[in-house]
Amino acid sequence: MEVVIVPDAAAGGELIAEAMAALLRRKPEALLGVATGSTPLPVYRALSAKVRAGEVEVSGARICQLDEYVGLPAGHPESYRSVVLREVVEPLGLAESAFMGPDGAAEDVPAACAAYDRALTEAGGVDLQLLGIGTDGHIGFNEPCSSLASRTRIKTLTEQTRKDNARFFDSIDQVPHHVITQGIGTILEARHVVLLATGESKADAVALAVEGPLSALVPASALQLHPHATIVADEAAASRLKLGDYFRATYAAKPAWQGI
């Protein structure tokens, strides 16, 4: 995998936003896969700033969702659809019709999962998928021991993930127990996968994903199989990489026009 170590979260956000902008300059109708949570916010802020400055045109861009809670009522402010519309689609000035995601309120959730998986393929596939990483190495909501070939499906959240997400709700009791998530196999079909990790709490997970063995215990390690996977980590998140100096030197020597 390509590993880029940046000074801080803002630098990581700028780097990934420029990769997205470069993609949209080449392919104005690109399908961007987005993640929720606090980690990717610097990416969305930086990309929105580029749009406001006239550095990139996004009117043809499409946005797709990585995952969604099951059972939250339509319009709930913490549904991932609401979060993506609020933090990505609206700041970029896109119409809601540019957005696609799974139906977490469907009566037949397995059918909704299969429908979304098909929809991504029918849309031409994801051009760039942005990911975060959990402290246990999960990507999307593919918790440890998820199948590395898994497709979009319903998953039960671990207690640790529910605790991690409780900060977005009034209490942990309000955090749903189930989610729809793109599977690892679905994620790996994106043409470019970019994972952003910030903070010391992610250091162990990053080290295991990048330098550890391919293992279902660390779902993010599946990115080792991808032909174009980029890990962007700040110094704290990269602090346990044994090859940190090698990654810094390798990226420093890369021609600037290649981007990530």
From TrEMBL:
EC number: 3.5.99.6
Record text on activity regulation: Allosterically activated by N-acetylglucosamine 6-phosphate (GlcNAc6P).
PROSITE patterns linked: GLC_GALNAC_ISOMERASE (PS01161)
This protein's pathway: Amino-sugar metabolism; N-acetylneuraminate degradation; D-fructose 6-phosphate from N-acetylneuraminate: step 5/5
One GO molecular-function entry: glucosamine-6-phosphate deaminase activity
InterPro entries: Glc/Gal-6P_isomerase, Glucosamine6P_isomerase, Glucosamine6P_isomerase_CS, NagB/RpiA_transferase-like
Domain Glucosamine/galactosamine-6-phosphate isomerase residues, every copy: 10-224
Listed GO CC annotations: cytoplasm
Biological processes, Gene Ontology terms: carbohydrate metabolic process; glucosamine catabolic process; N-acetylglucosamine catabolic process; N-acetylneuraminate catabolic process
Catalytic activity from the UniProt record: alpha-D-glucosamine 6-phosphate + H2O = beta-D-fructose 6-phosphate + NH4(+)
Annotated site (Part of the allosteric site): 146, 153, 155-156
UniProt keyword terms in alphabetical order: Allosteric enzyme, Carbohydrate metabolism, Hydrolase
Residues annotated as the enzyme's active site: 67 (proton acceptor), 136 (for ring-opening step), 138 (proton acceptor), 143 (for ring-opening step)
Family listed: Belongs to the glucosamine/galactosamine-6-phosphate isomerase family. NagB subfamily.
UniProt function note: Catalyzes the reversible isomerization-deamination of glucosamine 6-phosphate (GlcN6P) to form fructose 6-phosphate (Fru6P) and ammonium ion.
Protein name as annotated: Glucosamine-6-phosphate deaminase
Natural source organism: Streptomyces qinzhouensis
Biological classification of the source: Bacteria, Bacillati, Actinomycetota, Actinomycetes, Kitasatosporales
Gene that this sequence comes from: nagB
